[in-house]
């Protein structure tokens, strides 16, 4: 279930991709949230 959520997040990130720096920071934040759950 967690993997499915992670895949959704990665899909969203790839859609947003355009500002790589902001994207990287957002991805790091998401990973921290996922790891805590």
Structure description:
With 37 residues, this protein is mainly α. It has one domain. The chain contains two helices and no strands. It starts with a helix and ends with a helix.
Summarize the structure.
This protein has 37 residues and is mainly α. The chain contains two helices and no strands.
Instruction: Give the rounded overall mean pLDDT.
Output: 76
Helical run tally: 2
Write down how many β-strands occur, each being a DSSP E stretch of 2 or more residues. Answer: 0
Oligomeric organization of the protein chains: single chain
Helix content: over 70%
Measured distance between first and last alpha carbons: 12 Å
Tally of separate domains = 1
β-strand percent reads: under 5%
The shape is: flat
- The unreliable regions are none
Instruction: Tell me about the largest β-sheet.
Output: none
Secondary structure class reads mainly alpha
What radius of gyration results from the CA coordinates?
10 Å
